[in-house]
Write a structure and sequence with these properties.
Structural class: alpha/beta
Distance between the termini: 38 Å
CATH architecture of the largest domain: 3-Layer(aba) Sandwich
Mean pLDDT: 89
Bound molecules: adenosine-5'-diphosphate, magnesium ion
Oligomer: single chain
Order of helices and strands: EEEHEEHEHHHHHEHEHEEHH
Strand order of the largest sheet: 6-7-8-3-9-10
Number of domains: 2
CATH superfamily of the largest domain: P-loop containing nucleotide triphosphate hydrolases
Length: about 260
């Protein structure tokens, strides 16, 4: 493959301003097909904003973003999902009163003509979803480790299971790129190890992964490459060992105790 065929997502000189705040400042980066790319940086660095602009929540003030060479400009969120970008959120956003399985089926539904409303109102159509969709949803629940409780109402699942269920729902859209925003937040060390395995498995299944995460052991252990943001600017990029040695990164991030502020 040539260099450009290798690239799945490309940000070119992306800037986002919120009033006087420059949340992303002239950020260029690429994500290669099949890689696990880590996005790190202190709180307020622009990581979640980066996810939001990639997934169409915000429009870039300037700059371009393309997936497989197609510009994402002016596309709505659901169109970007259909093109192949899925995400999880820093704070859990499931349909709390729906079962684990139905939450995943809603994800699978983005590619059918009927949308979320039918799923939410549990129309006969939704109940009749092709057995194939259901089989796949069950497989995804098993992949993420929630396979034993497909019919449990999602709000009754443990916190960790809810986070993993979000990953299953994102995968159900069959994305080219899955973006995970702080997937290990609130996890204990054993859960973090399982999550690292899961992220690798997801990549091995053919998905490309973008992950924002504060836990350095996880980031360094799982990512092929890492991009570092500080005050909205890209200050470094490289392999985990390059990043660990980078003086600018150490000064900006690794050397400082991060306040555990999950406000966004
Ligand atoms: N919708 C918004 N309106 C105004 N400012 C925002 C908005 N979203 C993010 N910001 C600001 O952009 C900066 C980057 O935020 P964010 O992307 O959430 O950082 P991170 O995820 O790296 O902690 C912060 O200064 C934040 O306050
Ligand atoms: Mg954030």
């Amino acid at each position: 493959m040539s260099e450009s065929e290798d690239i799945l997502l490309e940000l070119e000189a992306v800037t986002i301003k919120f009033g006087g705040v420059v949340a992303l400042d002239d950020v260029s980066m690429t994500i290669k097909k099949g890689e696990i790319l880590g996005l790190i940086g202190p709180n307020g660095a622009g990581k979640t904003t980066c996810f939001n602009v990639i997934t169409g929540v915000y429009a870039a003030t300037s700059g371009t973003i393309s997936l497989d060479g197609k510009s994402l400009a002016k596309r709505k969120r659901y169109q970007i999902t259909k093109l192949g970008i899925a995400r999880t959120f820093q704070n859990i956003r499931l349909f709390p009163s729906m079962s684990a399985l139905d939450n995943v089926l809603v994800g699978a539904d983005v590619h059918s003509k009927v949308g979320l409303l039918r799923a939410l109102f549990r129309t006969p159509y939704f109940r009749r979803v092709e057995p194939e969709n259901k089989r796949r949803a069950v497989e995804l629940l098993e992949l993420v480790g929630v396979g034993a409780q497909p019919d449990e109402i999602s709000v009754n699942l443990s916190y960790g299971d809810q986070r993993r269920l979000e990953i299953a729902r994102a995968l159900a859209t069959n994305p080219k790129l899955i973006c995970l925003d702080e997937p290990a937040a609130g996890f204990n060390p054993a859960e973090k190890l399982r999550l690292m395995d899961l992220i690798r498995q997801i990549r091995d299944l053919g998905f490309t992964v973008l992950v924002v995460e504060h836990d350095m052991k996880l980031v360094m252990g799982v990512c092929d490459r890492i991009v570092v943001l500080e005050f909205g600017r890209k200050i470094a990029e490289g392999t985990p060992s390059e990043i660990q040695k980078n003086p600018a990164v150490i000064a900006a991030y690794l050397g400082t105790e991060e306040a555990d502020d999950d406000a966004a």
